[in-house]
Amino acid sequence: MNTKNNASKKTKKKGVYYTLDGFLAGMLIAGVAIMLLQTSFYQPRTEHKTFASQDILNALGTLRLNEVNSSVVEQDYINGNITNLNKTVLEQIGEYWALNESSKAQSLFESVNNFNISKLKGMSVSIENDTIYSQGLNNTENVFSTMRMITGFSKGNPVSGFSSSAYLKKIQNKKTSTYAYFGGFIGQGNITEFMTLPSDFNSSRLVSSELTIETPGKFYLYINNMQCNGLFTGTGSSVDTWTLDVCSSEFQSGENNISLKFISTLNESYVAGGYLKTTYTTDNLLQSGSLNYKRYTFPSIDGLINIYDSISAQGLITDWFLNVSFDNIYGTYMTLGNETIFTAQGSNITQNILITRNSTVLAPTEIPLRMGITNITNVTIVTDGLPADSFLVTDVSGSMNDCAIYQNTTQEYCSYDFKFWFWWFSTSCPYTGTCLADECNTGSSSTRNHVVSNQTQQVCTDTKMDLAKQADKIFVDTVLNQSTQHKIGLDDFSSNANTPTNLTNQKEVLKSEIDTYTANGGTCSCCGLNRARDLLTENNTKNFLIFLSDGEPTAYCSGGLHDYSGTFESSPYTQSKNDAITSAQEACNNNITVYAIGFGDAMSQSGTDTMKQIACNTSLYYDASNVSELADIYKNISNDVLLSANYSSQTVNIQGNYSTTHLLFGSYMDLYYTPIISDEQNKIDIVMNSQQFACNGQIDIPAQTTVLDAHVAIFSGNDWTKTVFVNGNKVYNLSEYSENYSILGDPFRVTIPSAYLIPGQTNNISITQGSTPLNDSNCSMNNSLIYTLLINASTSRTGTNEKLEGCKWEIAYEDGTTSNVTIPSTYAGAKTCSYTPTLVSYDSTDSYDAAVYSLLKLLDYDNNKKILVNINNLDLEIITTTIGNVPYLWGPSIIKINLYN
User: Fold this and answer.
1) How far apart are CA 491 and CA 500, in angstroms?
2) Which distant-in-sequence residues (6+ apart) come within 8 Å of 499 by Cβ?
3) Phi-psi bin for 399: left (phi > 0), alpha (psi -120 to 50), beta?
């Protein structure tokens, strides 16, 4: 190949590569500009001169540095001042101008536009107000101008620079807290709770510790089986706080046992809410643990198992696992919300309950948890408890004879065709051994196509009446097996109320009467309700009415609230429904707790609405459209009756002897949930405790933080926390579980969904508490918000800065100390920077300093010019990136070409 004729040949001249093709193309563009200029003299139209100036700018913006022959560019490339020969001539002229090198800008312009324009009287090129090139006369009367914006340049400012971001690789001495909580009510007897401290904890890192609880008792405090201080004496209905600084050596990393060993009577040996708080320093960025798993640890109790508490998570609970062990010769039960999770008979050996619940959906709010004992009335006197009298009011109308449960059965059938007059028909009947003639007795003498085959049919195994009888018997056994102090009455109804079985504790009498129930007639709901209510109001015990029906009422009580005989009514049965609701609500007004159960899938919407209004509140209505659930519903109701009878307040006052019960160490409930907050990367967590408040609190949360977890700690004493609202949002409402508070747990900590708390503003919290839905009590003055903040430990990238040097920083910390930190650690200059309460100074044009300042400001979450954690040279990493020729960095600036005629 003849390389001399190679059109793509490249020639190297003093380190600069010039492409001959590119050079020729550049000359061609310049020639076009000359031609246009010359054409303008032959055709003296002003637009031609304007086009000429536009073409010159287009040529400058199109030509690349590697396509021109310029000694200025060549030398700057050799010296390293130019590293990118792919830039346009216009960009390089703008850069020379920004760097105050106008002579170089002029030289470059001349090298590109070095042609004969003698017929043009004058020409000038300027950027902003600075002239880059000028030739000939300037005639302001005949000037033709073209302008263009150029970006990325500003005179006196760098055209390239550095952008940085910073993050903490590790920290020192972060001050935070951990709590061991003593539920809404924990007791009664000796109590042990648990606290987990970080792996780098030791007694020298403990800043402070305190015990804040409400108790009327006297006790000794043990931390990891070592006695702390002397005798502690509670003051009953008020909250006491004791500092535990003398006990610092007893705390250890990992799990710590916090034990209260009471010397008071059992009736005073409890904690009505509170916590042990430890404040310490740690070098861990995060202590918050897993974002989708949480363990609730039951307290260890030696005495009388009696817990009012709650569970929660910052997200939707989807699965949970219960593992609880106890020694109890009496009955033991646990409820979650208004659901009974388990009941266990008394035993002389340790019992272990394991329950798994998958694919559930529990909202991200506090769920009351209750654990206690039953059947203690056999050996002791519970002065706050009363016997329970209950009436089972059961619908025995004709529709209760409908089938509730079918079972598929397979049987052999004889099938054939038979002739009737001129037509053939098909028939079949159970196979009895032959299938040759008219075995199905059609009366026909002509048959054909005989076949024996298996057929599946549905057979009714249980009617609704059968299931109702079974459920009534379950209720009888559950309640009367617990105590013979309780009594049960029966009242079945159809078109009127049938003869009742008066209150009795004789199980066989009750079961024998239940067996006599038969289904027929209409539905006079008010008749059954009136009869049961009148029989219950004659007693001074705790009264319950359990009403079961499979449809809406069809008869009303024309004689009023004491009428037991129904008067039939046509659809839509308006008076029948109204009378049923009136009769039930009259019972509620007479302190009778009315449960209502809608039974069977044939219930109309109108019937369901009526049943909901028959119950004292909607939490006492049960939908048994799945008839197989009826037995479980009666079990739950009977347990509610027993719990309510045993406990009318949270304290169980016992007189006489009792056997000690034990809730064993290691009992827990694991919660698996979908978290609300999912990003903890490059963040530091810190536990905060707000100022104390009563029923209403106002909490300021620092801006530029994220709330990871939050709880309102509420001292409700022997009452229940009823409602909690945050910024107008309902967070917790106990009555949604039941209006019979005695069967429900009582949280000490009410979870606040993190999205409800807004950093950077005042957050309003309101609380109500009491012993019933209608009774409000005064709030403690010791309530507070305990919350975990996430603080960013990394910055976004800074703007572009001209310097990348570093500084010697003086930094103040929250622990009261200051230190001198060189960032980066390789910096050896004399420049100093400061982030302290007395001085904040840094070089904003230095990319290192700008990134460090941004990070320190993030770590100063309360804006007191002291950062949260201590750092040294090696803790902080700065990532830098050199940025050059970024179009949006500066500008825009205006370049103008003037042609004079």
Assistant:
1) 5
2) none
3) alpha
Tokens in use for 684? 């530091």
Residue 66's DSSP bridge partners are: none
Q: What is the structure's pLDDT at 889? A: 46
What's the chain's Rg over C-alpha atoms? 44
Q: Which candidate, 333, 337, 335, places its Cα nearest to that of 367?
A: 337
Domain boundaries, the chain: 12-159+893-900, 174-375+662-789, 387-400+465-646, 403-463, 795-884
Count Cβ atoms below 10 Å from residue 482 Cβ, excluding itself: 25
Q: Which residue has the higher pLDDT, 515 or 169?
A: 515
Residue 757's identity, in one-letter code, is L
pLDDT of residue 159: 58
Surface-to-core class of residue 255, CB atoms within 10 Å of its CB (0-12 exposed, 13-18 middle, 19+ buried): exposed
The residues, ordered by sequence, that sit 6+ positions from 450 with a Cβ below 8 Å of its Cβ are 414, 415, 416, 435, 436
38-42: long-range contacts at Cβ-Cβ below 8 A with a sequence spacing of 24 or more? 38/119, 41/119, 41/120
The alpha carbon of residue 722 and the mean position of all alpha carbons in its chain are separated, in whole angstroms, by 21
User: What is the spatial distance between Cα 689 and Cα 699, in angstroms, rounded to a whole number?
Assistant: 10
At a CB cut-off of 8 Å and minimum separation 6, what does 317 contact? Answer: 360, 361, 362, 364, 671, 672, 673
- In the predicted structure, residue 153 carries a pLDDT above the cut 80: no
Tokens of 160: 């390239």
Identify which has the larger pLDDT, 365 or 345: 345
Q: Could you tell me which CATH number the domain at 387-400+465-646 has? A: 3.40.50.410
Q: What DSSP string describes 393-439? A: EEE-SGGGGSEEEEEEEEEEEEEEEEEETTEEEEEEEE--S--SS-T
Bridge partners of residue 834, in order along the sequence: 810, 841
pLDDT surpasses 80 at 682: no
8 Å CB contact between 778 and 685:
no
Residue with tokens 């929250």: 814
- Dihedral sign of CA atoms 44, 50, 53, 58 in order: negative
Q: Is the pTM above the cut of 0.85?
A: no
Contact 622, 612 (CB under 8 A): no
- 392 φ, ψ to 5°? -95, 110
- The residues with which 818 forms a beta bridge, in sequence order, are 812
The mean predicted confidence, pLDDT, of the chain is: 82
3-state class (DSSP) for residue 115: coil
Strand partners, 435: none
From first CA to last CA, the distance across the chain in angstroms is: 52
